[in-house]
């Protein structure tokens, strides 16, 4: 039995869960999220104990994998509508900066032109300083994907460490040619 999959998802008081077949809707103070669970998984919600449980039909390899995944996706939805997920990115380099232009983020990271990325509809983005980007969303996957898209524009390079990195990310630095002797 999956150790994660057999744990129930505890629903806080200010969150409302609705099940229609395998369609799950989670509504909370930060917003609403919806998901269709895999047809093999049986999702139940006990309103009296305020717990969502996920069951699998058998011990096939695919069903075992989907069991824990489905439970974690529901848990992420419940925690996302209570507390927003946040990703922080640092822009490192001389002249490198990020600015908000309406509903898009503009990145000047050493190319001839600024790179403009539109912000997805369920994600909020802000630049408190020119070298810091803060991404917030109720959807963990959307926040992580947009952060990865921004980082992909100019990943950190190992010689000088210039580029866009996650806050707290350690970059393994390499010695240049001068120190190779």
Explain what you see.
With 181 residues, the protein is α+β, with helices and mostly antiparallel strands. It has two helices and 13 strands. The strands form four sheets. It has a four-stranded antiparallel β-sheet, with helices on one face. It is elongated. The mean pLDDT is 92.
List the helices and strands and how they pair.
Layout: E1 9-10, E2 16-20, E3 23-28, E4 31-36, E5 42-46, E6 51-55, H1 61-82, E7 85-92, E8 97-101, E9 104-108, E10 115-118, E11 123-129, E12 132-137, H2 140-153, E13 163-166
Antiparallel strand pairs: 1-6, 2-3, 3-4, 5-6, 7-12, 7-13, 8-9, 9-10, 11-12
Concise synopsis of the structure shown:
The chain has about 180 residues and is an alpha+beta fold. The protein is about 20% helix and about 40% strand.
């Amino acid at each position: 039995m999956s150790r994660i999959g057999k744990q129930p998802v505890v629903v806080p008081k200010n969150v409302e869960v609705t099940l229609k077949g395998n369609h799950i809707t989670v509504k909370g103070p930060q917003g609403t999220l919806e998901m269709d669970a895999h047809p093999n998984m049986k999702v139940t919600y006990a309103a009296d104990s305020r717990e969502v449980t996920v069951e699998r039909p058998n011990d096939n390899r695919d069903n075992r994998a989907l069991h824990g995944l489905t439970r974690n996706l529901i848990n992420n939805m419940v925690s996302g509508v209570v507390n927003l997920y946040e990703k922080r990115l640092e822009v490192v380099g001389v002249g490198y900066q990020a600015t908000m232009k309406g509903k898009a983020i503009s990145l000047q990271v050493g190319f001839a032109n600024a790179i403009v990325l539109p912000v997805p509809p369920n994600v909020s983005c802000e630049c408190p300083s020119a070298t810091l980007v803060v991404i917030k969303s109720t959807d963990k996957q959307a926040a992580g994907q947009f952060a990865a898209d921004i980082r992909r524009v100019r990943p950190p390079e190992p010689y000088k460490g210039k580029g866009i990195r996650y806050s707290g990310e350690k970059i393994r630095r390499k010695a240049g040619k001068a120190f190779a002797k």
